[in-house]
């Protein structure tokens, strides 16, 4: 947050998301690829780039190229073992190539797979999970199941950048590909309609503010009962506060601000709304209350499908069965599992979300008795995890960690095995790493699924159901039983 409100230094574009380094562009002669050369795309990388080889055998990762295509490329980065390029000309297009639905495709850094037909996107994501597990010696008996919803208008949560340029023009949008610059948005095909409708009036309001440089970014959230706009702002400006209040009345939304630089506090400019989202239970829907700053899955439809999948995979849960839900958030899986009859110990590192989880359990208890205990715990340390396992002696463990995965938890689960383990992951690479620990420690994968949480992007969510087989195995013995 220290740079909020200040002009950032210009960053050299790496030419590819996620790759670090100080190498600049190299002379074209060093690439070995001429402007007239045609490359055959033989595969797709995990991030959706096409993969080809030069006549000399060097690998080239090509943005915008698809499997089976023939393309001419321009190299924008040369490395020792591979080049990075983008498509200049498509000589022969793949059957799965489609016209991207978004006019900002190719500039906006958000949706990088819109040129690939939706069914092919999802097959690619299933293949990525299988390949990463395969690198750990784990073979699935059948392709992962698919958990998917709508292809457009799905995103209920988004963070938009705000920047005032040297001429005083205000920009609002997502980052451009491979840089900190913003793409001004008037439409966004993946936002839910209620959020997309705010883009134009919000940019008009920002242009009318007296202190727009005090605004760092804006978070948008659609819940089942309210649409919320949260402004990250360095300091209060009374005149601009009144403008935001007028905007809230005109657009029928609620507005809050994170005020301050180092330790921002939440300040509501409108009445505090009930921010609630529904998730399925075994008999009826449950309501989760959330607050700005809480983790909430961006795709509400897919999240509900994932919860339903978890209930189905873990069914039947016997009355009073002990479940330990780690990285529990505000109770996304904890409450549905408790509604199915389990006694749930829900552990979460964020104290505010632990409080919210307890509140959610009590708020839903009027419909049926829910046995949920909320606990704050540092789940990155093996000692804390071992202590929880010893204290609760669970029969079922549910994991939903951040991108870093749950290596400490996985190792502890080998020392203190449970009969069933459901691992929900937002990073297939760390999931595969942790799965290897578990399989070598005696677990087998019984079910696998890919959840298309962020449609049109290379990001994928995964679900693996493990059962403890009773004896340690080599990774090659960890095949799914389908």
UniProtKB/TrEMBL annotation:
Domain TRAM: 30-89
UniProt superkingdom: Bacteria
Record GO terms (molecular function): 4 iron, 4 sulfur cluster binding; iron ion binding; RNA binding; rRNA (uridine-C5-)-methyltransferase activity
Region (Disordered): 1-35
Regions of compositional bias (Basic residues) in chain numbering: 1-10
Catalytic activity: uridine(1939) in 23S rRNA + S-adenosyl-L-methionine = 5-methyluridine(1939) in 23S rRNA + S-adenosyl-L-homocysteine + H(+)
Binding site for [4Fe-4S] cluster: 102, 108, 111, 188
Assigned EC number: 2.1.1.190
Pfam families: TRAM, tRNA_U5-meth_tr
Catalytic-site annotation from UniProt: 426, 426 (nucleophile)
Protein keywords: 4Fe-4S, Iron, Iron-sulfur, Metal-binding, Methyltransferase, rRNA processing, S-adenosyl-L-methionine, Transferase
BP GO terms, sorted: rRNA base methylation
Keyword Membrane appears in the UniProt entry: no
Compositional bias annotation for Low complexity: 13-26
Annotated binding of S-adenosyl-L-methionine, by residue: 297, 327, 332, 348, 378, 400
Function: Catalyzes the formation of 5-methyl-uridine at position 1939 (m5U1939) in 23S rRNA.
Family label: Belongs to the class I-like SAM-binding methyltransferase superfamily. RNA M5U methyltransferase family. RlmD subfamily.
Full protein name: 23S rRNA (uracil(1939)-C(5))-methyltransferase RlmD
Lineage of the organism: Bacteria, Pseudomonadati, Pseudomonadota, Gammaproteobacteria, Oceanospirillales
